[in-house]
Inverse folding.
């Protein structure tokens, strides 16, 4: 699936009774490629699932707002490249919110990555102002949009990127060898990345 230039839009509107499940039949599939367009997924529950993708969602520029989607057994869950979500605001409905990533057997089962671990739940490359996790307000009630990262070498891998990472949970992250974790890559930042981790409103306190 692909969106083209700034005029392309992918809006996933499933329902609790008619969910949307993207998956590969025999081998892994390429995933959703967003070339400067918009990707919007917002329905709660198990309504949107991305499974068996090389990169489930790959966005080059454009805009990506995802809430509640589940990512299972993907080599990379979400990859953002040359992306700018300006200004970041973790008190809005925008950003990457309330998602779950998993690979229950710790290794992928389809080609071309059969037998490998998932590389990264989220991969950031040359990204500005991304917002990962956060909270929202509904009828004056605070709602937490916690992301749950699991079963990959990296939870969030960041290269030359900046943004806010708030209200996220990491479990079973790192390189596996004989059932032991050799390195922890929950949040792995390199090449000048500048990430604000944790914080309630101000970004100064709280949990990642």
């Amino acid at each position: 699936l692909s969106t083209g230039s700034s005029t392309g839009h992918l809006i996933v509107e499933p329902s609790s009774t008619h969910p949307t499940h993207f998956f590969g039949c025999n081998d892994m599939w390429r995933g959703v490629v967003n070339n400067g367009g918009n990707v919007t997924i917002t329905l709660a529950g198990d309504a949107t699932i991305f499974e068996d993708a090389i990169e489930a969602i790959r966005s080059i520029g454009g805009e990506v707002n995802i809430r509640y989607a589940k990512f299972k057994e993907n080599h990379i869950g979400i990859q953002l490249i040359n992306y700018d979500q300006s200004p970041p605001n973790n008190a809005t409905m925008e950003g990457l919110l309330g998602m779950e990533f998993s690979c229950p057997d710790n290794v992928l089962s389809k080609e071309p990555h059969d037998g490998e671990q998932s590389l990264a739940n989220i991969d950031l490359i040359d990204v500005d102002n991304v917002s990962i996790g956060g909270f929202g307000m509904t009828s004056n009630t605070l709602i937490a949009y916690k992301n749950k990262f699991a079963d990959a070498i990296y939870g969030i891998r960041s290269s030359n990127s900046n943004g806010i990472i708030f209200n996220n949970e990491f479990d079973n992250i790192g390189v596996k060898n004989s059932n032991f974790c050799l390195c922890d890559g929950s949040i792995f930042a390199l090449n000048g990345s500048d990430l604000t981790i944790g914080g309630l409103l101000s970004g100064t306190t709280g949990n990642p």
